[in-house]
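tool=predict chain=A
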Amino acid sequence: MTIQVSSANEALVNDPYVQYRDWRARGPIHWSDDYFGGAWVLTTFDAVQAALKDPRLSACRTGGWVMRAPLSGREGRAELIGMQRLFARAMLFVDKPAHPRLRQAMQVGFRPSAIQGMSDFVGTAANGLIDEIEATCDIDTPFDFIGGFARALPARVIARFLGFRRVDERRFLAWSTDLARFLGSVYPSEADVLAARDSLVGMADYIAAELSDGAINEDNLLAVLLRAQQRGEIEDGAEMLSQCAMLLFAGHETTRHLLGTAVYWLLRQPERWTSLEDPVRLRSAVRELLRWDSPVQYTGRRARSSFTLHGKGIRRGDLVLPLIGSANRDPNRYGDPERIDLDRPVGMPLSFGSGPHVCIGASLTLMEAECALATLVRRWPRLQLCEHGAEWLAIPLYRGLKTLMVRRSADARIQAWA
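tool=predict ok
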């Protein structure tokens, strides 16, 4: 049976999980005309996990996606080609032999000791942001958690992890917002494309200036990548810039959404929030919140050849979208999946992917989220949601909040939201 999806942007932003439940009930695969001119969507845990490991499906998918953007004329076409060349060389969008070469070059930068070595910085940065908010916002005065904390912390952490000495936080956040709007939209507007182009160029120029400065710290990721380039594991400066730009963007965007939605769902039932005063629960709690509301709702693959998948005829070049958000609530994988259980032995949900392209920065994101939540609960044990204070992003790819109004309550009676 073929299921036609209507108004994908609206339905999948307002409450994607209602749509996912309907699709899963009808089978593991459906055709949708509303994604990028047409795509196969995969809905169940097993189907999504298998697709992420399937050699018949390629991660090389930026050509049709970027080049379909609404820029016309010779000059517009040249702009798109420039964007496409930069996107297409990022590790996220390449297959063998480039992918294992790039991943091996970067893996040493994400070794456990490097991640653990960032924990003190994350704690200091989280406390610093809390101090800034307390200095400007009195008890019982509403403030935006996303703008004041969730956007700023991952920006500072990924900049430090990469090894930047100069962090223009305002510009970085603007670049990340522009790229997220372009990457996350099913049908980006011309304005979205132009803003993403300008931000990508700005980010690349910024990284190039850092790399040419010469004073690279030996312990950060930029130094790792420079040494890899010197050994020939990274082919040239353009490939280097592509990896750095994608790491800078991806390392910020997914973590900010995880922090925002985690705080939102924890405060909806305040006993969840106070339960995290026990640090033993943090590990399972963060993984359960990732399962419950994945920051990345889907990823994409292109069929290398024609074949049959779950009884459907896939043609060479077809776009296949594994729906990570749907897989993480599959009742055949998780008992009572429509309930948050912070003690659930969830393992690792599919929020970071699976197979060869599993997120290289997953450990950094998990450590950052656990450290940030522990600091927030310790400093603000009576944090409360403000009524009607949550605004969701209108981007189907990303599940996150644009604003989240909260307040530090002086009242021991905590309001729960149904």
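The radius of gyration is 21 Å. The chain has one domain: 8-408.
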